[in-house]
Structure formats: C-alpha cells, structure tokens
Design a protein that fits this description.
Layout: H1 14-30, H2 60-67, E1 74-77, H3 88-91, E2 98-101, E3 111-114, E4 129-132, E5 135-136, E6 154-161, E7 175-181, E8 189-196, E9 200-210, E10 214-225, E11 234-246, E12 252-265, H4 272-275, H5 289-293, H6 296-299, E13 302-317, E14 321-337, E15 341-360, E16 364-384, E17 391-416, E18 419-436, E19 443-461, E20 464-475, H7 479-482, E21 483-488, E22 491-499, E23 505-518, H8 524-528, E24 531-544, E25 547-551, E26 557-562, E27 567-581, E28 586-600, E29 616-626, E30 629-638, E31 642-643, E32 653-654, E33 657-668, E34 671-678, E35 686-689, E36 701-703, E37 708-716
Parallel strand pairs: 4-7
Antiparallel strand pairs: 1-6, 2-3, 4-5, 6-7, 8-9, 8-37, 9-10, 10-11, 11-12, 12-13, 13-14, 14-15, 15-16, 16-17, 17-18, 18-19, 19-20, 20-23, 21-22, 23-24, 24-27, 25-26, 27-28, 28-29, 29-30, 30-33, 31-32, 33-34, 34-37, 35-36
C-alpha cells in the first residue's frame, strides 16, 4: 500500500432481570462511593503529588467526580487497559449504552451508536458529538469520521449519553464522547507495541515532561493491517501534541496539535450464504451475475482521509467565578469511493466557545455560555468505471456551508442536603447552505429552536445515587443527507445528484436511573478496585421527523427522509464490575448490557421495529488475578435474530451469535504485557447489516472477523 495508491492504504431477558434483581437490593441494603460511571478496575492517569488538579485536563478521579454531578447516564472508559486498540470498538467495549458495529474488520470506521442516534449513517456518521479535550471534532454540519480518532492517544474517554452532554455543541439524541489526551502532567513517556492476526502491526511512542509552570507531551502512532477479508488492508499514521501553562489565580492554558492520515480498502457486504459460508470473500470471488457486475476488485472501493487540527483552551478564576475560552480549527480532506461513485471533499471547520460559571453561597452553582461553529466544504462527485475503478465524468460539484450558534444558561441548586436540582436552557440557530457549482439551483435551510432540560439528583447514601431528567434534543441533517447521488451500476453515464429539503429531527426524552457501589474498601482508586460498582439507566424518547436513510438493491445509500409517522426509542443501559478478593488472589469482572427497543409509532411501518440496532447486546469478562497476572474468558453476545428491514420481513435477519474469547495480562513495574484471543470457536457471524426499507433478495450483511489473536507490550518511563 503506497501513498500513490492509497486504497492499497437494539421485554427484559432473564439475564437483565437477574442483574437488576441481584444488584439493586444489595446496594440499598448495604448503603451502596458513588461511581460516576461503571468504573474500571484500575486507573491510568496519575497526577504527581503537589501538582494540583488541572481544569483543562482532569485526572481520572476528577472526571469521575464531575460525572456524579450529571443527572443521567454516564461512563468513563480507560482505553489503555485494553489489550488491543485498533478501532473504537476496542476502546469502548464493556461500556453500557454504547453499540459499536464493526464493518470491515480492519482499520475502518465502525458504526457508533448511542440510543439509536445515527446508527444507520455510514460511512460518515452523525448522531453523536465527539470531543477532543473538551472541544468538538465534528465537522460544522455535525458529521464525523470515526476513523480519524486514534484511541491509542487517549488517556480516558468520558461518555455522557443523551441530554447528559455538557458541551454546547451536543444537541443530538446520542450525547457526546470526550477523548481526553495525555499531558506532561501524567508522566514522562510510554511506548506500546502491538501485533495481531491478519498481519496487524502497530507502534506508539509518547514523550512528556513538566517544569514549574509548563508541561508538554507528544505522541506518535503508526499501524498497518492486512485484514481478515480480501480487499481490506489499511494503514494509519497519527500525531498528537500539547503544551500547557499553569500560572497563579487559577490561570491555565493548553494548546493541542493533531494530525491523522489513514486509508483502507473496503471489502463491502455479502449475501447471507457467503457470510455464513466463507466470510473472507468479497463480491468478485464467485462467478455469478452479481459478482461480475459489482466486483470489488474491479471497482476498487476505498477510503482515504487526513486531518490537521489545532485547538486552544484558556481558563482563569476560582470556583466562585470561573471563566473559560476555547477555540479550534481543523482541515479535513477525504476521498470516498463505493461501488459506483467517487466522492472527493475538502472541508474547513472553526469554532469558538466561552463559558462562565460561579457559585452563590454553598447551595447555588450557575453557568452561562455561548458558542459558534462554522465551516465550508467543497465536494465533487464522479462516476467510476465498472472495469477499472477509475474516476469518470464529474456529475456534481457543490460548495457547502454550515453555521451554528448557541447561547445557554443553567444552574444547580441544592434543595436539601441530599437533593440537587439541575436545569439548562439553550437557544440555537443552525443554517445549511448548498450551492451548486454547475449553475443549477442550490438550497438554504435554517432553524431556530430552544433546547431545555431539567434533572434531579438524590444522594441517598454516601454510596448510592439516583437521578432523573427530562430533556429535548435536536439534530439537523448533515450534507450527506441533504445532497444525494444516484448512479446506475451497469451504466455510469446515468448519474445524477439531488437536493433533499429535510427538516430537523426532534425528540423529548425521559430518563431515570441509579448508580453506586457496595463492599468497596478505602477511598479513591483503592475503592474503585474492590467491591462491586454498578449503574442502571432507563430512557424513553418520543421522536418527530427521525432521519431515516434508504438504500438500493446493491446496498448503496439512495437518500434520507424525515419519517412522518413518529418514532419511539426506549431502552435500558446497565453496567456492573468489581473485584472478589480471595486469600492470596482475586477475581476481577465486568459486564455491560444494552437493551434497545426502537419502533415506528405511525406511518407505513407502524408498530414495526427500526432495523439496524440489536435489541440486546452483552459484553462480559471474568479474570482470575494472582500476583501480577490476570487471565480469564470474555463474551460478546447478541442473543436474538435481528430484522434487516424496517418492514420486519420474516426470514430476512441478521442471526444471533455469541463470541467466546480469552484475555491475559501480566504487569511488573513499568512493564505490561497483554494477550487477547477473540472468537475462539471461529464462529461465522454478521457484525452489522445494510438496513433496507423492505427486504429484497439481495440482502446484505457485513461478515464478522474469524478467530484472531493479539499481543501488546507497553513500558512507562
């Protein structure tokens, strides 16, 4: 793979009822320290004694404390504890409420969904706000390329589901994820090497240091993957650096610089017979009319993307009156070629946000904020040759402009020693502008709206916390929804674009839950590494105008519509983990269960399930610990067959599956060696599906990877 040829770079189950019935009574009876999330067993980020807490780069304990002040579902992931870090699926495993569906089993951009928001969108996603150190990395229209995130650079990932998002840029049903970087405050450096099946090799080196007032950190990463399937090799290179200054009077400033370049070839979906027969195949490996028409080898679908990003945050003041100013700019270039169309685009996004918070007495905390995000994108569409994959005639060229502005006010009021009432009100204006550079008509869409939310937190005991909230969410269509393409697979001369005047997706959500711990010993990290820690969140969202994507018989997107009949998303997000101590050893365990019940309320699919998300999804592991060793089995389980179409046609399903694995780890001083084996039984399964309106004979599924092994070694210095 060379730079010149870059592509060659979701009714409860017995399990759920048992989980709730086991944990909740014990937690109340024993007086379950409040866990800000379903916590991990060890902490990675460490601040040196006397260094103080950073407002811009919080430590793990500080982030957990911050999450306890949110009246809803949250979690904190520590990716450096995982044996393999190829995609977001590795870093976000065992996180309740997060569904990651691998598409191609390589260095790709998996589907990432929370509460069903944007789960159908691919390859460029929507429905979530991704943050890098507190500032958005989404493009100005709300879309994002998840493959641009190299999770090996992240010290922690703060997950704030739904209306629990804190960033002004977060307005979608899914919420936000904040990928927080290592800094010079975390130590001097680290090195990590990884090797895995299917010729994956990865390396990372990081260096950091600090003086009296200044710290700096730089991290370099590279990886290459041949892929489980044919035509699925890829590579990624990345760099992240930051420098921080801490002065007197609470003054703190940090600047981040990041660069990522990745490319991979796309093997695409397969019909069920081949997914459950020989999943390594692609279209073109058999002599059928479909293989001859849509040969992956001839059409060469691939994706290349690169991004430069610079950001700065400035904070000053005290808890009584605190100010923060953030600015960011990023440039993204991408080439996305599917079986019929090559799309090339170049986008620039910039943003500015200001926040002021304060305290009146000990019972009232208030906040004011304003933010603006804007950006422009140049996008061209070309048909491709069915025989060579070369770009042919250009059939669409657009200038795309997006801007969003917000102002908000909020407060947290302590109504009683154990009760806190929180509320926020945001006013926003969003605009999308599409200009056709070929002289045809363009399109302007704009919306003004208010987004309120109110919640309550009950600190029942020092180790048990309950919460509830009601909120609104809004999601404007991205340019991938507003501008659609149509190319005949057997005749590239028949190619056209269309502009779709979509409306905003809106939802009202009710949410309630609790989280806590019991049997924990000590405080801080010691408590987090003992006893049982759990969280349970239920939500129900009534939606209007949900953005639903449609595809053609080949599995390619043909458009997006606002579903007129109304939809409902509801579910349960449960996480539990802990440590059972024995005489000279222990058992470490963790599990996450996400139940998703998404349905059409009216319209042509009234009462049917919205396809694309498994109803139940479980991940669990049980590790025996002795000395510096830990080892044990893992489980990834989708217990029900899932429809591939919104009409819920019998027989057209993604089959249930259970994947068994093993994980081992040895730690001694600064050294850590981790091994992981996945899909030990070599189960043939579909990891995701191409969602259609109504089933057709050309059902498309994405094969999951076969048996694989990985090993990683890291050294902190």
């Amino acid at each position: 793979m060379t730079k010149q040829n870059r592509p060659m770079p979701f009714k409860c189950t017995l399990l759920g009822m048992a989980l709730a019935g086991m944990v909740l009574p014990q937690a109340v009876a024993q007086g379950a320290a409040v866990a800000g999330s379903a916590p991990e067993l060890r902490e990675v980020t460490v601040r040196a004694a006397g260094s103080g807490e950073s407002a811009l780069s919080p430590s793990v304990p500080a982030e957990r404390r911050r999450l306890t002040r949110i009246p809803g579902g949250t979690a904190l992931a520590l990716p450096q504890q995982e044996a393999r870090l190829t995609t977001l699926g590795d870093a976000l495993a065992y996180q309740p409420g997060v569904v990651v569906q691998e598409m191609f089993g390589g260095i790709d951009a998996p589907r990432l969904g929370v509460r069903g928001s944007g789960i159908q969108s691919h390859p460029v996603k929507r429905g979530l706000t991704l943050l890098q150190d507190g500032l958005p990395i989404n493009e100005a229209d709300g879309s994002y390329i998840s493959g641009l995130l190299d999770v090996r650079h992240a010290a922690q990932i703060s997950i704030r589901r739904g209306a629990n998002a804190r960033s002004l840029a977060s307005e979608s049903l899914g919420g936000e994820m904040d990928f927080q970087s290592f800094t010079g405050l975390d130590g001097r450096g680290r090195a990590r090497l990884e090797a895995a099946s299917f010729a994956r090799r990865a390396a990372l080196a990081a260096f950091g240091g600090k003086g009296n007032n200044i710290d700096a950190h730089v991290s370099l990463g590279a990886e290459r993957h041949h892929g489980f399937r044919h035509h699925s090799d890829g590579q990624r290179k990345s760099m992240q650096a930051n420098v921080g200054y801490r002065g007197t009077g609470g003054l703190e400033n940090r600047t981040w610089l990041a660069w990522t370049d990745f490319d991979y070839r796309i093997p695409g979906p397969l019909p069920p017979g081949r997914v459950y027969g020989d999943p390594s195949q692609v279209l073109g490996d058999a002599d059928t009319p479909r293989d001859r028409l849509l040969s992956v080898y001839q059409r060469n679908p691939h994706r290349n993307a690169s991004q430069w990003r610079i950001a700065n945050r400035l904070a000053w003041g005290s808890e009584r009156l605190h100010h923060e100013l953030g600015v960011w700019w990023q440039r993204t270039r991408a080439e996305e070629q599917n079986l019929t169309t090559a799309t090339r685009w170049h986008g620039r996004t910039a943003g500015l946000q200001w926040q002021t918070s304060g305290q009146v007495g000990k019972a009232l905390h208030w906040r004011l904020a304003a933010a603006w995000t804007g950006g422009s994108t140049e996008r061209d569409f070309r048909a491709i040759s069915p025989r060579t994959g070369a770009a042919l005639q250009r059939f669409g060229s657009f200038e795309l402009d997006a801007q969003t502005a917000h102002v908000s006010a909020g407060a947290d009021a302590e109504l009683a020693p154990d009760w806190t009432l929180t509320g926020d009100l945001r006013f926003s204006r969003t605009r999308r502008s599409v200009k056709n550079r070929t002289g045809q008509s363009g399109m302007e869409r704009s919306w003004r709206y208010a987004t309120p939310k109110i919640g309550v937190i009950w600190q029942a005991t020092p180790r048990l916390r309950a919460f509830a909230n009601v909120s609104r969410s809004h999601e404007a269509p991205t340019f991938y929804d507003l501008v659609t393409t149509s190319v005949a697979a057997n005749n590239p001369a028949r190619a056209a674009t269309a502009l779709v005047p979509l409306n905003m997706q809106r939802a009202t959500t009710l949410e309630a839950g609790a989280q806590g711990s019991f049997g924990a010993e000590g405080t801080g990290a010691d408590a987090m590494a003992s006893g049982v820690h759990w969280q349970l969140t239920l939500y129900r969202s009534a939606m209007r105008g949900e953005l639903i994507r449609t595809v053609d018989a080949t599995g390619l997107q043909t458009g997006t519509c606002n579903y007129a009949g109304g939809t409902r998303h509801q579910g349960l997000e449960a996480g539990i983990n802990g440590r059972l101590r024995l005489a000279a050893s222990a058992f470490d365990w963790r599990a996450a269960w996400t139940w998703s019940d998404f349905r059409f309320r009216g319209g042509p699919y009234a009462g049917k399930r919205i396809a694309g998300v498994p109803r139940h999804f479980v991940q669990a592991e049980l590790l025996y610990r002795a000395g510096g060793w830990r080892a044990g089995p893992t489980l990834r389980w989708q217990p029900l067959d899932e429809y591939v179409d919104h009409a819920n046609t019998p027989g057209y399903v993604q089959r249930r599956y259970a994947l068994l694995g093993l994980r081992g780890e040895y730690r001694r001083g600064p050294w850590s060696i981790q091994l992981q084996a996945d899909n030990l039984t070599n189960r043939r399964y579909a990891s995701a599906m191409v969602v259609t309106d109504r089933a057709n004979p050309n059902i498309n599924l994405f094969p999951g990877s076969g048996r694989s092994f990985s090993i990683s070694a890291s050294y902190n210095f």
